[in-house]
């Protein structure tokens, strides 16, 4: 995972063994979301999450992501959820609504269910920025970062028995 200035980074020794992780992915801007999904699975593998413990669901667009996350959080028997999508301003007139409602909904789901939900949704001005945040191994990939966040927060939840 790339370390970048100002980014959270991954705590040393983070170990996802035994965790069950949900992934919600939007179909809009599928070529970008596919790259984020690659990042999610790369990170979960690096953190020793068993591929058999990863449950993935697809939703139409980023606006539907909170609903998908809630379904997994309440009925998916998961320790945390990772959400991936891409909202690109240049291609949508209601960018602010879709992006804002997605972020607001994701936060609401994690606070009301007690299941951590990581926000791996790109909100960019154009496709070039989206490509730059969904790079391959060694580059910047927000899906990869969000997957590590999901593992970290799932372990925090287990530690305190929250949720
Ligand atoms: C409608 C729409 C638009 C214009 N743009 C995007 C986008 O850039 N990224 C995305 O994930 N979804 C977009 N959507 C679809 C909405 O998220 C949603 O699926 C529809 O409004 C139907 O509820």
What does this structure look like?
The chain is α/β, with parallel strands linked by helices. The protein is built from five helices and four strands. A four-stranded parallel sheet has the order 2-1-3-4, sandwiched between helices. The longest helix is centred in the middle third of the chain and has 19 residues, at 95-113. The mean pLDDT is 94. Residues 26, 28-29, 60-64, 85-88, 91-92, 94, 98 line the site of ligand DLZ.
CATH topology, which one?
A: Rossmann fold
> Which hetero compounds are present in the coordinates?
ligand DLZ
Average per-residue pLDDT, rounded, comes to 94
In the predicted model, the low-confidence regions spanning at least 5 consecutive residues are: none
What is the oligomer described by this structure? Answer: single chain
CATH class: Alpha Beta
Strand order of the largest sheet: 2-1-3-4
Tell how many strands the DSSP assignment holds.
4
Helical percentage = 40-55%
- Shape designation: globular
- The total of helices stands at 5
Brief account:
The chain has helices at residues 30-46, 65-75, 95-113, 127-132, 142-160; strands at residues 21-26, 54-59, 80-88, 117-124. By secondary structure, the protein is of the alpha/beta class. The two termini are 29 Å apart.
